[in-house]
Each structure stands twice: as structure tokens, then as C-alpha cells.
Specification:
Length: about 170
Amino acid sequence: MDKPLQKALFLDRDGVINVEKNYLYKIEDFEFIDGIFELCHHYQELGFIIIVVTNQSGIARKYYSEEDFQKLTKWMIGEFSKQNIIISKVYHCPHHPDISGECSCRKPKAGMFLEAKEEFGIDMQNSIMIGDKERDIEAGLNAGVKENYLFDENGIVKHLSEIYLKED
């Protein structure tokens, strides 16, 4: 008997989990966005797994290394863990099209989402994406996520799925 598909809360990192700072890779520069722990608690209680999907072109640009990114990621997951929040996985795209060429993982492409779907058995139709850029929302939609929210510069969440879906 197949196990039921899981719902996921997909989160972009920079601008959603932490305050946007260009090419962030140092723990001392990381600042959590107010309310992110409460948001994650809420969805975890509803049975969602939490997955981070983040473009990290600073790696391709050589502003920081893969090791720098992994060190910060491990620390961030630990901070969530202290709040009794499980981050199931952090997927990242280290590429930049001008440097690395085209890839399937850089948002707005759906590669990171589809990898998570395969690895965790995710029900994309009943999952949620929260991002702070239009490419985050486009990636969610490209992956089949029906509920997509955009943080604006004031931290206000706008539900964009209907807007984007009506344009098709």
C-alpha cells in the first residue's frame, strides 16, 4: 500500500526566513524575519513538512563557497530545531546563468521543487510556497504548487496564485 503524499511548506530563504542582505553567508550577518518561527510552527502543526528552496548565485560568483553556504545552513537548521521546528531539507541552486550556463534548478524553474517532490513524496497541489520575488512564485506554479504567497517589502503576504493562474 502506497503511503499518502505529504504536504510541504516551501520557503525561499533570503527575504522570507532572514532579512535580505546581498550574498549572505556569515552567521553573524543572519537576522531572522519576525514571525518566521510562528509561521513554521503553525504549518508544522497542520502536518506540513518544511522545505527551503533558495537560489544562491553567490557561490557561482565566488562571493562565498559551497562550504560557507553549508555552514550557515547547518546553523540555521539548528536555530529552527531549538524552536522545535524541523526543516526537512534545504535545496539550493549554486548557479548563475551568465557564469554556469542554464540549469534546471534556478528559480523560476521548478528543479528544486521536483527534486523535493521525488525525495519526500510531496503532494504539490496541496502544498504552499512563500517567496519574496516573482520568480519564487513562478517556480512554485511551474512545479504545480497551487497556493503561492509573495512577501512584499513591508512583510505583507499577498496570495498570488489566482492572479497568475488567470493570466494563463
